[in-house]
Amino acid sequence: MKRQSQNRKERDTTIALYLRISREDGRDESYSITNQRKLLTDSAKTLGFSKILYFVDDGVTGTQRDRKELMRMLTEIENGNIGAVIVKDLSRLSRDKSQANDLVEQFFPLHDVRFISVSDGTDSLNGEDEFLGFRTLMNEAYARDISKKRKLTNVVKGNTGEPLSPPPYGYKKDADNPKRWLVDDEAAEVVRRIFDMTLDDYGTEQIAQTLTKEKILTPAYYWKSKGVQRPARPHSRAPHHWATSSIIKILSLQEYCGDIINFKTYSKSFKLKTRIPNAEENMVIFKDVNEPIVDRALWESVQERRKRKTNEGERNMFSGLLVCPDCGHNLWYHFNQKNPDIKYFNCSGYNIRRGTCKTTHYIRVDFLEQVILHEIRRLTKFARKHEDRFAEFARGFSNQSSLSKREQKQKELAAAKQRDKDLDTLFSRIYEDNLNGKIDDDRFARMSRQYSVEQKELSDKIASLSAELTKQTEKALNTDHFIATVRKYTRAQKLTARMLTELVERIEVYQSEKVDGRWHQRLTIYYNCIGAIEIPETFAMPEIAMQTRKGVTVCYEPMAKTA
């Protein structure tokens, strides 16, 4: 009993000082942590408390419910270690009306904790605060108003090209102009290496393991080592332990091309801090604002490579590149169960979707490697011998190809937008008809649901077509980079994953056919930026023949001449 009495006495003489400040408080010096600490400490001593505990949430908004130090203080109260809580004013405790009311009216009384708000003149020893509901309502209204003003400010800033987020790993703020990003050479070198390794067919897990093994600091610890304050969760991993999620994020950031992308995320309410990914059409992109860390064409090549998802457990450098011209499905990678050295691809439409594709489109990997290497050699030889002609040919082909595709996409986009407008008109009409009694409520509900579903599909289609048109325009602009890449591989002796990624968009594999007693394998190679091109006959293709199965010799047949 004596011990319990002693513990109770210690609890009753212990007061918790809760201090909080955030951006919403602006530059009001009265709200500074230093000012709050002095004011509350003096008040606690005047009230006769002998033991003072400090709980400080610095830089945290009052609408956030699960603040770290607030949660720690509430835990101490539940454990019976605190007899009173004091704050500068009620808004320090919370700007969320329901949370503030719950704490003051339920939680504190339930745990027999005295609550004091200095500026409000509130002390629970003197009875209930009659103006509590009004104060919490005004505090929440203030937070809502500040949130609206901040959003409007961000809209203005974001639409003028000012970055709304801190620079990603690889960039740093310009000390003379915080709105501008400069390349951080040390981190940028790591970023470039991650992209290079991806082009060299390293997976994200392999890249993460390599950087971890070489003890390269992760982005969070790198910023910390440079004294850069960045909001981050507590890190349980070692400073050099790279996660695959970090590699994936770096590979996805378009900012490395030198672009500023604003409004990538949004929140549904000022009370909800969870950020939701925004639709692409709602983002605002400013291109070539900063010095690029990664060449745009290289970045796009990596994005294309990462999109090539396959269902095989094991991958090959051709995985995701080979397409069946009959059914449109990818070819899948396999190896012969009896002889694992024999690796091949065949159509997934034939493999698991029987009836979708009626032929296997079987092709051996070693045969494919020879063919593609020789075709790339033909391409580079043509580019080397006739530089001007090749450049003119490539640009002309690219412009012609993209123009025809662009016109088709533009027609589809115009039709989708027109139908979307028509649906708005139709919806207005049936709404009026329902009000006037021309159609009943059930029919109106069915028709409105039907129109809503169609409009959602149209919205997705419009977004997709707009993105494709943007991509086609960028492809045409990247032709010069493709020409430079072709020249880079002039003396290539071996086919590599990087070479394929930088040069080839896709390869159509036809079913081999028997002609005059010989099996012929036809392929159509679609190169990045310029599509499928016919190389002049003067750059002859050596005959490539291989016995792919017992008694079956297949020879390569180049793309047929176009009309």
Description:
By secondary structure, the chain is of the alpha/beta class. It has four domains: 2-146, 3-Layer(aba) Sandwich (Rossmann fold), CATH 3.40.50.1390; 161-306, Alpha-Beta Complex (Hect, E3 ligase catalytic domain fold); 310-387 and 487-557, no CATH class; 388-467. 47% of the residues lie in helices and 15% in strands. The chain has 17 helices and 20 strands. The protein has helices at 2-12, 33-46, 68-78, 90-93, 97-110, 132-159, 185-199, 204-213, 219-225, 244-252, 296-307, 348-351, 365-385, 387-435, 441-477, 479-488, 497-503, and strands at 14-21, 51-58, 84-87, 114-117, 122-123, 171-173, 181-183, 260-262, 265-266, 276-277, 284-286, 322-323, 331-335, 343-347, 363-364, 504-509, 513-515, 518-527, 545-549, 552-557. Strands 12, 16, 17, 18, 19 and 20 form a six-stranded mixed β-sheet that branches. A five-stranded mixed β-sheet has the order 2-1-3-4-5, sandwiched between helices. It has a three-stranded antiparallel β-sheet with strand order 13-14-15. Strand 17 and strand 18 form a beta hairpin. The longest helix has 49 residues, at 387-435. The model has no long low-confidence stretch (mean pLDDT 81).
